[in-house]
Write a structure and sequence with these properties.
Blueprint: E1 9-12, E2 20-23, H1 25-28, H2 31-44, E3 52-56, H3 59-70, E4 75-80, E5 88-95, E6 98-105, E7 114-122, H4 126-137, E8 141-151, H5 156-159, E9 165-171
Parallel strand pairs: 3-4, 3-7, 7-8, 8-9
Antiparallel strand pairs: 1-2, 4-6, 5-6
Length: 174
């Protein structure tokens, strides 16, 4: 059986020179790769007690929904501003090239709920920190974060040092 890393396509010099882009679509396009990714991520948090799974648009949906389903937990969407139909709460945060705003339904997290965040990748941790702030603004408690890929060279783990962070694959570079 192949290792999970063998399913990830690495694209040099994308989106700019010197960057190695870690493409998860090659994992999703292979049935064995997808099963291995979900199983590996789920195994990383098997001892974690949580009430709800949260995933951000769009790849957090892909990885978070099967984990929620397999563990009989609800799944909550975090989306870009303007995409959700009911009353929302939002969080603005800084990107390398500007600002972004994410939001979730105001009634999606109940005070005291233990929340697991699931995403495809963590780099600088900026988006993840904004999700944490959004969840905590509703009274939720983030008890863990699990991602398929961690780009350790971008130091997202340092930014999130107060939270349990698990990654299926950790690349040392950027």
């Amino acid at each position: 059986m192949k290792k999970l890393e063998e399913y990830v396509r690495s694209i040099p010099d994308f989106p700019e020179e010197g960057i190695i882009f870690r493409d998860v679509t090659s994992v999703l396009q292979d049935a064995d790769g997808l099963c291995l990714a979900i199983d590996t991520m789920q195994d990383k948090i098997k001892d974690l007690e949580y009430d709800v799974v949260v995933g951000p648009e769009s790849r957090g949906f892909i990885f978070g929904t099967p984990i929620a389903y397999n563990n009989h937990k609800p799944f909550v969407l975090i989306r870009k501003k303007g995409k959700l139909p009911c009353e929302t709460v939002e969080m603005e945060y800084e990107l390398e090239y500007g600002k972004a705003t994410i939001e979730m339904h105001k009634d999606s997290i109940k005070p005291g709920q233990r929340v697991l965040i699931v995403d495809d990748l963590i780099a600088t941790g900026g988006t993840t920190k904004a999700m944490i702030d959004l969840i905590e603004s509703l009274g939720g408690q983030v008890v863990g974060i699990v991602v398929m890929i961690e780009l350790a060279g971008l130091k997202g783990r340092e930014r999130l040092k107060d939270y349990r962070l698990e990654s299926a694959i950790c690349y040392e570079g950027k």
